[in-house]
Amino acid sequence: MSFSSSFPATCGIALVVLTCTGVALAQPLVTGDLTLYYDFDDNVGGQILDESGNGFHAEIVEGGDNTLLIDTVDPLRGAAAGVFVQSSDPLDVPVYLDVKGEDITEDFPELLPTDAITMAAWLKLTANMGNDQSVFQARSQDGSFSVLFQVQADGRLRMTLREQQNSITVANVRVYTDGSTDNTSAPFPVDEWFHYAGTYDAESKLWALYFDGDPIANGSGTGEPIGDWGGLPSDFFGAGVGAIYDSNLRNLDGAMDELYVFHRALSAQEVQTLYAPEPDGAWLAGLALAGVWAARRTASRPPRGIERTRGSSKGSR
Fold it and tell me: Cβ distance 79 to 41 under 8 Å?
């Protein structure tokens, strides 16, 4: 792929990345009621930048040998993907992204997915390590985990949503990639990219789970709203990506790209849009909006290959 020299100079480094990788600088494929969007293309000052427009940048937390690598060689979309590398030491703090859910709960409650939610992400996991792995989770102010999107040790996909008061379960889904609860021959794949999404709407009470863009299970929940992301006052954990800070060691081990959280339930067509690759050249329309956006992205573009980020460390537990 080549580029004309007539592009603005501010896009220079970004365009080099495009030339080397043959992919577009990622922008949200679906918008409207978007709460979080982490494309892993930008890591600045120990943070993965939120490209939803809300500015909810996630702090990279690392402990012991656990670390987040930035892979610019094999991202699913855009310029990079995040690779969560977890150690086998249970005393190490897992590597994860701290979304600061307590701050969002206090300052921007209208952006919380309490009445409806969609979570979607691309994953490329290492061989199943025999433990559940957390994709996105949130903890409400009463201490219960209000949102749990996980891949299970037995190969199933999980979505569990709880109402804040008394930890009432709103929806609880654990299925294999064919939508069954018992077909052990249809687990999520390892060492290859797959797309995972779940939706819920309190008004309609309907939930749905998707694998590689296709609906594989659906049903009705209780219709209750989902708990907030406030977290316990004594616990820094309000919402996070890649781990649950508890004794169950539900730590993600592998690559992630294009994580979205909406405060509405996306339609099946919109989930398919998140899954489907963009047509060749579709990204060019985005260059019309380059300017400051492209210049910001060029400021700290990592070199090609995989490199370690500079996240924080919160010691051992």
Answer: yes
Q: How far does CA 139 lie from the centroid of its chain?
A: 16
CA separation for the pair 171, 191 (Å, rounded):
29
Q: Which fold has domain 26-277?
A: Jelly Rolls (2.60.120)
**Residue 194: per-residue pLDDT:** 96
Checking if the pLDDT of 44 tops 80, the result is: yes
Report angle CA 226, 229, 235 to the nearest 5 degrees: 135
Residue 183: name the closest of 159, 208, 223, 154 by CA: 154
Q: Give the three-class secondary structure for 201.
A: strand
Q: Answer yes or no: pTM beyond 0.85.
A: no
- Of the pLDDT bands very low, low, confident and very high (cuts 50, 70, 90), residue 15 is very low
Give the phi and the psi of residue 19 in degrees, each rounded to 5: -65, -40
Nearby residues of 290 by Cβ (< 8 Å), 6 or more positions away: 7, 8, 10, 11, 14
| Cα 134 to Cα 148: distance, rounded to the nearest angstrom | 7
Mean pLDDT throughout 66-84?
92
CB atoms inside a 10 Å sphere around CB 247: 8
Q: Report pLDDT digits (tens) over 257-279.
A: 999 999 999 999 999 999 986 54
pLDDT mean across residues, the chain: 79
What φ, ψ does residue 6 adopt, rounded to 5°? -80, -5
Take residue 109 and report the two structure tokens written for it: 């409650």
* pLDDT of 91: 75
Q: How far apart are CA 124 and CA 259, in angstroms?
A: 13
Q: With residue 270 as reference, give the H or E element that holds it.
A: helix 268-275
Q: Which pLDDT belongs to residue 247?
A: 55
Q: Can you give the residue ranges of every domain in the chain?
A: 1-24+281-304, 26-277
What does the pLDDT read at residue 66? 87
Report which DSSP code applies to 298: H
